[in-house]
Amino acid sequence: MKILAIETSCDETAVALIEATGDLNYPKFKVLNKVVHSQIEEHKEFGGVYPSLAKREHARNIVPVLSQCLKLKEGKNVLYKENEIKEILKREPDLFEATKKFLENNSKPEIDLIAVTSGPGLEPALWVGINFAKALSLEWQIPLIPVNHMEGHMSSVLLNTNQKIQFPALSLLISGGHTELVEIKKWNEYKILGKTRDDAVGESYDKVARILGFPYPGGPKISDLAQKFRKKEQKSIGIKFPRPMINSKDLDFSFSGLKTAVLYKTQELKKINDFKEEIAYEFEEAIVDVLLNKINKALKENDFKTLIVAGGVTANKHIKERILKISENKDLEILFPEKEDSTDNAQMIAVAGYLKSLIFEPKINPEIKAEGGLTY
Ligand code: KG4
Ligand code: ZN
């Protein structure tokens, strides 16, 4: 079946079209097209994602992104459901006009299902994607399924594996908004084993980057600096940061104290230019030590067959290399998404939507509520 997916939970407006076959044991996917419009430049001056700006940018870009992804034949159509669509998009009059024009000038695509992110994420941003997807579902009479963003990240590994996933699986989700350890009993049956009590891993990378004077999102910059320090084997001045909650009895995390330790160290050193690489290195080592410790603890507590690591922070090579080593003397399959599927995207939402559609019957224009909160 062909699935169109829409993702607007944070600062990426993403649309993808994929072909999905197979059952829950052995699903297969082929990405037919994918388009992402990033808002990073717009948010840079705020040092993070600014919700009302994100909403406005999604509303402005979603139609061009969809149109580029679908490349539909031009046609002249009369809108069947103009009044209902106007009602659905009543808070976004410009988006209504753009949607109307798009639907009038393009023929209906051959798609079997639409999937849209319903949360967690920024609520105003989520509503743009949800309402837009509802309008398409209604006009084209194509069923629509809401998808959890974190389920999307977990399922992103299915885009690049041909093997059957062995359950139960453990998933470590590390992104700008989340740090969670989740037990996957089977697709669509999850239990959160632990999560961050304050900052997410990506968020702490971004905050440390800001302390060191780099723009949002600073994760890649910090990992570059850390790598430079690692490679050069240059003299260390012995910077040490704490590994928060590394020995706690639970599987929760806390990273805000680590960021504060970085801040204090920069204040103590005053001239930090010569030490940025070592600070980044020691910060990254602290993060990985904590992540590895918690993964190992979870693996000891349960007989997991697979470890799925997903979310934007998996773009970090060092974190990936160290996590992959866990399986050296264990019978454990470790899966990561490709780099292009690791940060926010719509192909992962299509994958999760397909899995969900094999369990729940999707409906045309269903009731969907944006779930802004951080859990699911
Ligand atoms: O999953 P994602 O695209 O968005 C959320 O759902 O949050 O993750 C974005 C996060 C940002 O905090 C970014 O700094 C971080 O992932 N990130 C990295 C790297 N590349 C992206 N963090 C550390 N090292 C990287 N190489
Ligand atoms: Zn994400």
Number of helices: 12
Nearest-angstrom radius of gyration?
Answer: 22 Å
Structural class: alpha/beta
Which consecutive residue ranges, at least 5 long each, have pLDDT under 50? none
Overall pLDDT confidence: 95
Distance between the termini: 27 Å
General shape:
globular
**What fraction of residues sit in β-strands?**
15-25%
Report the order of strands and helices.
EEEHHHHEHEHEEEHHHHEHEHE
Associated small molecules: 5'-O-[(R)-(carboxyoxy)(hydroxy)phosphoryl]adenosine, zinc ion
Q: Give the strand tally.
A: 11
Helix content: 40-55%
Strand order of the largest sheet: 3-2-1-4-5-11
Largest beta sheet, briefly?
6 strands, mixed
SSE topology sketch:
Blueprint: E1 2-7, E2 12-21, E3 28-38, H1 40-43, H2 51-70, H3 82-88, H4 93-105, E4 113-119, H5 123-140, E5 143-148, H6 149-155, E6 169-174, E7 179-186, E8 189-195, H7 201-211, H8 219-232, H9 256-269, H10 276-301, E9 306-310, H11 317-324, E10 333-335, H12 347-357, E11 363-364
Helix pairs in contact: 2-4, 2-5, 3-5, 6-12, 7-8, 7-9, 7-10, 8-10
The chain binds 5'-O-[(R)-(carboxyoxy)(hydroxy)phosphoryl]adenosine and zinc ion (ZN).
Q: If you had to describe this structure to a student in words, what would you say it looks like?
A:
Strand 4 (113-119), helix 5 (123-140) and strand 5 form a beta-alpha-beta unit. The chain is globular and about 70 Å long. The protein is of the alpha/beta class. 41% of the residues lie in helices and 19% in strands. Helix 7 (201-211) crosses helix 8. Bound molecules: 5'-O-[(R)-(carboxyoxy)(hydroxy)phosphoryl]adenosine and zinc ion. The site of 5'-O-[(R)-(carboxyoxy)(hydroxy)phosphoryl]adenosine has 19 residues, from helix 7 and helix 8. 5'-O-[(R)-(carboxyoxy)(hydroxy)phosphoryl]adenosine binds at residues 10, 175-177, 202-203, 205-206, 217, 219-220, 223, 311-313, 315-316, 343-344.
